[in-house]
Amino acid sequence: MVDELALVVGLGNPGPKYEGNRHNAGFLVLDVLADRVGGRFKAHRGGADVLEGRLAGRRVVLAKPRGYMNTSGGPVAGTAKFYKVPPASIVVVHDELDLPFGTVRLKLGGGENGHNGLRSITKSLGTKDYHRVRFGVDRPPGRMDPADYVLRDFSATERKELGFELDRTADAVEALLSLGLEAAQNKFH
C-alpha cells in the first residue's frame, strides 16, 4: 500500500443535523486530514465530495460520501473505480460501538459488526478486504438503542477530548499510509 494512490473515506451522514453525531466520526477525522492536506472538498460525479493531495508522502484522495451512511457503498465503489484504486488501497474511517470513546484500532478486512455503512461498502466493492480505521464511540448507556445512540451528538465530557482524539485518529491514518498496517497497529494499539 506504500506507493500507489490511496482512497481515504470518512463515513457519516450529510447535513447540519448530523454534524456532531457519533456516527459522523469518519467525517470529522476527514476534516482534520483535509486541513493537513490544505484543500477543500469538491463535489465529484462518483457521489462523494473529494479532495486530492498528498498525505504522509503519498498521493491520496480523501472522500466523504454524499448520501446517508447505509448507502455509502455506491459512492465509495464509484470513486474507487474512477480513480482506479483497488480495495487494498482503500482506508475507511468509521465510528465503532465496540470500542471505548477515542480508542483507535486499525485492521484489514473482517466483519462489519452491524455497521450499515461498512455493510454497504463491502457489498458494493464485492470484498471485505479494505482497511478500516475504527474510532471508538463506546456502547450506549442502559437499554438505549444503538441506532439512536450513534445519531446523538458527543457528550459535553467527550467534546472536551474530541479534538485530541480526532487528531490522534488522523495520525493513525497517516501512519497506515506511510508505514503499513502492522507498523501502524504497533504504534496505535
Task: Give the helix/strand layout.
Elements: E1 6-10, H1 25-37, E2 42-43, E3 48-55, E4 58-65, H2 73-83, E5 90-96, E6 104-108, H3 116-125, E7 131-136, H4 146-150, H5 156-179, H6 181-188
Parallel strand pairs: 1-4, 1-5, 5-7
Antiparallel strand pairs: 2-3, 3-4, 6-7
Structure description:
Its EC number is 3.1.1.29. It is found in: Cytoplasm. This is Peptidyl-tRNA hydrolase. The chain has helices at residues 25-37, 73-83, 116-125, 146-150, 156-179, 181-188; strands at residues 6-10, 42-43, 48-55, 58-65, 90-96, 104-108, 131-136. The chain is α/β, with parallel strands linked by helices. Strands 2-3-4-1-5-7-6 form a 7-stranded mixed sheet. Strand 3 (48-55) and strand 4 (58-65) form a beta hairpin. The longest helix has 24 residues, at 156-179. The mean pLDDT is 94.
Question: Gist?
Answer:
This protein has 189 residues and is an alpha/beta fold. It is built from six helices and seven strands, in the order βαβββαββαβααα.
Instruction: Indicate the CATH topology.
Output: Rossmann fold
Number of strands: 7
CA gyration radius, whole angstroms: 15 Å
* Corresponding CATH superfamily: Peptidyl-tRNA hydrolase
Subcellular location: Cytoplasm
Organism: Saccharothrix coeruleofusca
Protein name: Peptidyl-tRNA hydrolase
Function: Catalyzes the release of premature peptidyl moieties from peptidyl-tRNA molecules trapped in stalled 50S ribosomal subunits, and thus maintains levels of free tRNAs and 50S ribosomes.
